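Take one record.
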Amino acid sequence: MTIAQSVEFPLVCQNCGTPGAAWKGQAVRRGELLWEINFQCLNCGLTSCDFDPGEAPAHIRDALLATHGPARLRVEDPKGRIKLLQVLRSTFGWPLDRARRALAELGTTGYRCTDVEAEFLRRRLTELGVHALVEK
């Protein structure tokens, strides 16, 4: 099942100079968290799709949070927090100190993230036997 969220933004075609249709966002496809930028020129037909796994660049993540609002991921079980630390590091490639900061949010306000990140992390934790809750 694919989960996706995107934001449309203005972009001029590098080929013909005409404004085109552009989207940036995140998706979960085949069990992998991806970020992506898609463009299509309605004049000359140029298309592009750039994507990569893992943590989205700040401009994509910030646009999703501004447009769709944050989700909050909560884990009640203290044992689950260790697994979450492992999942955060493997998903985003974060160093231990960055993952620990996110873990600290879990114990207070909940980890603030995009809807796609929250659902991806919730599913990963569920696979590990950890009950996680996503709040909007």
About this structure: The chain has two domains: 3-68, 71-135. Residues 71-135 form a domain with the Ribosomal Protein L30; Chain: A, fold (CATH 3.30.1390). The CA atoms of residues 12 and 19 lie 4 Å apart.
